[in-house]
Write a structure and sequence with these properties.
By secondary structure, the protein is of the alpha/beta class. Helices cover 43% and strands 19% of the residues. The chain folds into two domains: 176 residues, Response regulator (Rossmann fold, 3-Layer(aba) Sandwich), CATH 3.40.50; 131 residues, Response regulator (Rossmann fold, 3-Layer(aba) Sandwich), CATH 3.40.50.2300. The protein is elongated and about 60 Å long. The N terminus is likely disordered.
Amino acid sequence: MQSRWTRSRYVFLPALAALGLFSLGCTSSEPSSDDADPPVVSNDRPVVALVMKSLANEFFLTMEDGARAHQQTNPDRYELIAEGIKDELDVARQIDLMEQMVARGADVLVLAPADSQALVSAAARAVEAGVTVVNIDNRLDEDALAERGLDIPFVGPDNRGGARQAGEVLAGTLNPGDEVAIIEGAPGAYNALQRRLGFEDAMQAAGMAVVAAQSGYWEMDRANGVAAALLLAHPELTALLCANDSMALGAAAAVRAAGRSEDVAIVGFDNISAVQELVRNGSVLATVDQHADQIAVNGIEHALAILDGGETPADLQTEVTLIMADTMP
């Protein structure tokens, strides 16, 4: 009996041929144009589509690089197409990319959703089309999945636990009652909520005063503006807890501009290369490495195992590692 992915080659190929489309292989990470889709190949390898968030964020470029390196060492197992959006909040474009992947005959969709609720409908349509969907990085909303009767496995880290680790390190440098603020990720993103909760867990346990929690929408420039405003509004502020490293970079610039580098500590999340020198010199106290180069790889391996019938859809928690100056190579 043919596997589902082998059958899909023949289901999609005639329709696509009629539209003048050809084979699908490894493509650029740039979002595809509306008038030129990658071709579709009929062969013995399943096609894995990796749809990520903003490729302006180094974290997702590292994720893509890890996935491409994995495919290159497993060329006979699967084909890979990797796409991402330009803006962290461009949910409509990410939905469009997902629908393109289904229409072009992808067998597997590995998705890092920009929004935990808004992407559920598109994921449901992919499942209905017979695509094996695995959710990575940012968990899709469990209630929204349940409403549609969907069982989409999540492969990713314990964001709350990782943020709590960074917050605990920060708390060790402060005194009970000190004022701190949180710069959150995008509203509607599960991992943004979980990281905020992790920071709050650590601050509450240590007796700190969380005087504000505002969104920097995952972006450096927005976080810079938020941090600058927080420093003005709260002159006694002693720390900024940032839900990703892009925002930590923006916060660090604001702290420097305010002349507060000696008395305002910063923690981040992701361990991107751009923040590592700031960790080394103490401008950022700590970050959390969720191993971006392996998250998509773990998702791809999990999806392929499900596709082959050797594994049931189940969540898979991946590793996080606390990074500080004394633990860096």
